[in-house]
Amino acid sequence: MGDLKILVVDDESRMRKLVKDFLIRAGYQVLEAADGEEAVDIFFSTKGIDLLVLDVMMPKMDGWEVVKEVRKVSKVPIIMLTAKDQEQDELQGFDLGVDEYISKPFSPKILVARIGAILRRTSQIEGENIESGGIVMDVGAHHVLIDGKTIELSFKEFELLQFFMTNEGRALTREYILNQVWNYDYFGDARTIDTHVKKLRSKLGEKGKYIHTIWGMGYKFEVE
To answer: Rounded to two decimals, what is the model's pTM?
Structure first.
């Protein structure tokens, strides 16, 4: 774990130190940035950053702008921190490619657990393909083809599609999806899943119809 690098970006030095101390204790390498511009400079000048913990409200360049710059070149997992508990912020983060969304105040232990869950999944090289209905997922390469054409998915969209396809034909409750895809310690709600499903369906094009809504329960992936 000691070779895994995490970039923590927050203009509050106490918050950076708190997160950094917990991450170092868990065995990670930690880089720090006090504003968005510094974060972008560090990200592009440092090889092998495995995950970003990124605050929204910062001087010089806010968190949204940092995400936009990073997503131009990388799919590295991003956890967004914000003091605002508003649906629009969460939706904006997902639209830009944020993988996890945590509102302040939060438990540092929960943050470390969620970072660990993400990094375990991204570091697994499973060397397998999942195929159904013209969709081919190369799990190890984190690559998706639809009828031979590559589509771009965020980390969390990829995980969600993988979960659906490996459970083809099964009715899945929203709570079960949260537990399995967002990890047991995610304190989310149905909005999180519904937002990701909407984005995933859109990116799948006509194949999006394979994700069926089960009203009052959840979803089922089934090729017609």
So the answer is: 0.60
Query: Comparing C-alpha atoms, which of 117, 195, 199 is closest to residue 153?
Result: 199
Q: How many helices (H) and strands (E) does the chain have?
A: 8, 12
pLDDT tens profile 181-195: 876 445 556 678 888
Helix (H) or strand (E) holding 206: none
Which token pair is 112? 């470390």
Residue 12 is encoded by which pair of tokens? 């509050």
Token pair belonging to 5: 């690098």
Phi, psi of 29 (to 5 degrees): -85, 140
The 10 Å Cβ neighbour count of residue 184 is 10
| Angle formed at CA 75 by CA 72 and CA 81, multiple of 5 degrees | 95
Distance, CA of 111 to CA of 144 (rounded, Å): 29
CA-to-CA dists, residue 173 to 41, 59, 78, 221, angstroms: 42, 41, 26, 12
Which region among 8-17, 143-152, 166-175, 179-188 has the lowest average model confidence (pLDDT)? 179-188
Helix axis angle, 190-204 to 174-181, nearest 10°: 80
Q: Which amino acid is at 46?
A: T
Using CA atoms, how far residue 147 sits from 133, 150, 155, 198, 200, in Å, is 9, 9, 21, 21, 16
DSSP string, 175-205: HHHHHHHS-TT----HHHHHHHHHHHHHHHG
d(CA 183, CA 93): 19
Is 151 buried (19+), middle (13-18) or exposed (0-12) by CB count in 10 A?
A: middle
